Amino acid sequence: MEKLLEEFSIGLFFWHSLIFLSLIFLLKKFAWKPILDTINDREEGIKDALKSAEKAKEEMQSLRADNEEIMKKARVERDSILKEARDLKKTIISESKDEAKIEAEKIIQSANEAIRNEKNAAVSEIKKQVAGLSIEIAEKLLNEKLSDNEKQMKIVDELLKDVKLK
Amino acid sequence: MNFAKFFLSTLLILNANFCAYSIEKDPEQKGGIKDEIKEYIAHHLKDSHSFGVASYTKENGEKVYIEIPLPVILYDNGFKFFMSSDFKHGKKTVSKNENYYRLYYHKNKIYKTDNQGTFIYDDSNKLINEKPIDFSITKNVVVMIFTAAFMLWLFISLARSYKSNNGVSKGMGRFFEPIVLYVRDEIAKPNIGKNYKKYMSFLLTIFFFVLFLNLLGLTPIGINVTGNIAVTFSLAILTFIITNITANKNYWAHIFWMPGVPKPIRLILAPIELLGLFIKPLTLMIRLYANMQGGHIVLMSIIGLMFIFYNWIGSSLSLVLAFLLMIIELFVALLQAYIFTILSALYFGFANEEHEH
């Protein structure tokens, strides 16, 4: 202890304290503060960057979820549209079938009618011709065989036998 | 990388330098060599009024010192200035205004004497000459100024490199930035807590200052700044002052009126705690001093062994030993700086503790 006290130099103590305190002061002002501030800023920057990256990731995820939702909706919509279209097709086909049927019936009906009319016309024509023929026959009979009564009757019978009403 | 080179070259120069020290010695005088080594070690451990580079003995026995003289500043009824070379290694007295001063070279102390320069001893062989107050710029002061300047350059350039390089450090500072971060994250934050910011300047400065001075102490220029009791006292007392100035109410309550214990025990605890207040910085002071001083003594003794053995087996063995010890000393230099800083941080932490009772 005595040796230590003897070794102790007030001058050295004074100079050391002076140098060390001014060193602290100068370094604090010109070095430590800017260094620590920069390091702090940098750390904050890294933290922020990490945070925003995390945020972006979350956003991506929500976007993806949204996308899926939209896709799902679109799929459902597509399905419903397809179904609608199928239904529409069916109704259109059945409607047109019905229409066609009706049309066909109409055509058949009118054809039938025309046929009937034609037939009627033809019948009346035939009737007319038969009447004409009858008159002709009568004429002939009158002209040639009016003398022979028996023969006349025979001819009339024969003629009438040939004539058939339709 | 640069630092590794620096350390390595330091080691080499150190060994070379101590060799150069003793080539001058006469191998015939073996008994003399031991004393001489002892003297060298003792002298090296002490501060000096001049910056010694080398010394040798001429053929006629005259000792020649190659050294840089440093200014001597004495306070003895007013300041007195002169250069240390005026002392001629304690052989001459220096007169200033009718006052005579003489340097006791081996003790490295300046005494006031008569015009003949006589040292007066009392019965127990103790010097009783009057001592002027010595404010000299000694070797240690020069080294401290150099270290302080180096640190200023180093860390200010680091701070500047951030600005010029977009917040990313550049150059030599890059090596020290992780250490700054280490001091903040591993020393200050866990020990002090949330108030760590106001102590950062002190902790960083003390860490690097002690570290650089410790490392410089291992160079062959023979510097022993941190192994000097005045220096470690100054460092420790700063820790002491800062601890007590920044202490909160809680800290004082725990010293004088310990909460949570019965009242009679509080009375016993108070003086113990008060004593602890002073013991803490005292241990800081002694620990650094003794470690650096001890390391230097052991290292130099082993290097000195080479010249005592004076044969190739013993000398090469102690060379290897000295080399290994040097590596340990490098570690100790770092460790002591770390311990001083972390204990200071711990004491600051005590002063800032918030208790929930």
Question: How would you characterize this protein structure?
Answer:
The complex is a heterodimer of chains A (166) and B (357). The mean pLDDT of chain A is 87. In chain A, α2 packs antiparallel against α3. Chain A is rod-shaped. The longest helix of chain A has 135 residues. With 166 residues, chain A is mainly alpha-helical. By secondary structure, chain B is mainly alpha-helical. Chain B has 9 helices and 8 strands. In chain B, the strands form 3 sheets. Chain B has a 3-stranded antiparallel sheet, with no helix packed on it. Chain B has a 3-stranded antiparallel sheet with strand order 5-6-7, with no helix packed on it. Chain B has a two-stranded antiparallel sheet with strand order 1-2. In chain B, a hairpin with a 3-residue loop joins β3 and β4. The N and C termini of chain B lie far apart (52 Å). At the A-B interface, α2 of A face β8, α3, α4, α5 and α6 of B.
List the helices and strands and how they pair.
The complex is a heterodimer of chains A (166) and B (357).
Chain A: H1 2-7, H2 10-144, H3 149-162
Helix pairs in contact in A: 2-3
Chain B: H1 2-23, H2 30-45, E1 50-57, E2 63-69, E3 71-75, E4 79-83, E5 94-96, E6 99-104, E7 109-113, E8 133-134, H3 139-164, H4 173-192, H5 200-217, H6 229-245, H7 249-256, H8 263-309, H9 312-351
Antiparallel strand pairs in B: 1-2, 3-4, 3-8, 5-6, 6-7
Helix pairs in contact in B: 2-8, 3-4, 3-5, 4-5, 4-9, 5-9, 6-8, 6-9, 8-9
List the main descriptive attributes of the protein structure presented here:
heterodimer, A: 166 residues, mainly alpha, rod-shaped, B: 357 residues, 3-stranded antiparallel β-sheet, 11% strand
Summed over residues and divided by their number, the pLDDT of chain B gives a mean of 82
Spans where pLDDT lies below 50 across 5 or more residues of chain B: 7-30
**What is the share of helical residues of chain B?**
55-70%
User: In sequence order, what are the helices and strands of chain A, one letter per element?
Assistant: HHH
Q: Please tally the β strands of chain B and state the result.
A: 8
Low-confidence stretches of chain A: none
What's the quaternary structure here?
A: heterodimer
Largest sheet, strands/sense/barrel of chain A:
none
Helix and strand element order of chain B: HHEEEEEEEEHHHHHHH
Overall mean pLDDT of chain A stands at 87
Gyration radius of chain B, to the nearest Å? Answer: 24 Å
Distinct helical segment count of chain B: 9
